[in-house]
Each structure stands twice: as C-alpha cells, then as structure tokens.
Amino acid sequence: MEFPEPPAQGEPEVYDGDEIVAGPASGLPVVRLFDAEGVPLRMWLAYEPQAGAITNDGVHVAVGDLDGDGVSEIVTAPADGQPFVRAWNADGTIFMHEDNPVGILVDFALNYNGGARVAVADVDFDGRGEILTVAATAPGPGIPPAIKAFEIDGTPVAGWTDFLPFGPGSDVGVVITATDRFLKH
C-alpha cells in the first residue's frame, strides 16, 4: 500500500471530507489515515517500538477536536506498553498546545505497562474535547480499570470523577468510545 509523501515543512495540511484513522491492535504502532474511500493519505510511527525495557506494541486511536477550532486531532495510546497518550495533527505532526506537545503519562498503577485505550469527548461542555483514558488490561490484582478524563495540558478535568464501568470487582480491560453529540450544548 502506497502512502503519499508528507507535505513540505510549514505547508498546511487540509483534507476535504471525512477521514478514517486506523492503528494495529498489535505490532508496530503506526497510525494510518485514509480518505472515506480507503485511499491512503498519511502514516506515521506513534511511538518508538521499544522504550527502555518496555515494548510498545500496537496503537489505539481516537479522533476529536481538542482545542475547539473545528478541526479534529488524533489521540493515540500504545495497545500494550507505556500508558503514554499523545495527540497528533492529521499530517502526522505532534499536536501542540501553548507551544508544548500534548503528551500525558497516565498513572493507572505503579509500574503498569499494559497499554491504554483512548476516546475524545467534550465532557465538561467547554467547546473543546477532553481525552478519556482507561487501562487496556487490569492494572493489577484487585485494581479495576477506571475511566479517567484529562484536559489537553494533562491536568485532570475539573469536576470529573474517575469511575469503574464494570464495578470494583472487575479485573478485565475496558474498551471505550465517546461522543458529546447525544446532548445538545
């Protein structure tokens, strides 16, 4: 499958229409962007496959407007490995917030390296999407995975209470998706 060359440095990247973002459940953590007909637009490596003694395997993806400008960003987390969430522009460059790259190391449990799942929704109704995360596997014996919400600067969403979607006795991983389109703002 052929992917086009990335744009020259500084050229704006604009896609007209709907796009599809995909990442592998295992293997090299490469994000792929396609148009609505499956034509490849971009691809990039979201994480180094190996971070010290931790292997980053696969990548989970979500899409949403993180800064309220009407353009969606892509949020990623390793499917297995360090629970480090990143945000990207559609051209594969790191999404910047106030001159800082968006990157959140989620503290699920001490030494947890089981990956994370991500979603984006405007849970505090401020016109900008927040990043929702949950451990891809149970963080440890007796530690159920909680859904957490973060602003793009990495701070927890004010007023958000982490919750256990399957209760305190659950020891399974959780898959999430989110929308803020069910409610009128």
Structural write-up:
31% of the residues are buried. The chain is globular, with a radius of gyration of 16 Å. A 4-stranded antiparallel β-sheet has the order 6-7-8-11, with no helix packed on it. The protein starts with 18 loop residues before the first strand and ends in a 35-residue tail after the last strand. The chain is an all-beta fold and 185 residues long.
Question: Which helices and strands appear, and what pairs or packs with what?
Answer:
Elements lengths: L18 E4 L7 E6 L4 E6 L4 E2 L2 E2 L1 E8 L8 E8 L3 E5 L7 E2 L2 E2 L1 E3 L10 E6 L8 E6 L12 E3 L35
Antiparallel strand pairs: 1-2, 2-3, 4-5, 6-7, 7-8, 8-11, 9-10, 12-13, 13-14
Helical residue percent band: under 10%
Q: Output the helix-strand order.
A: EEEEEEEEEEEEEE
Mean pLDDT: 83
* Low-pLDDT segments, ≥5 res: 6-12
**What fraction of residues sit in β-strands?**
25-35%
What's the β-strand tally?
14
Secondary-structure content class: mainly beta
* Global morphology: globular
* C-alpha Rg (nearest Å): 16 Å
Contiguous helical run count? 0
What is the straight-line distance between the termini? 41 Å
Instruction: Describe the sheet with the most strands.
Output: 4 strands, antiparallel
Largest sheet, spatial ordering of strands: 6-7-8-11
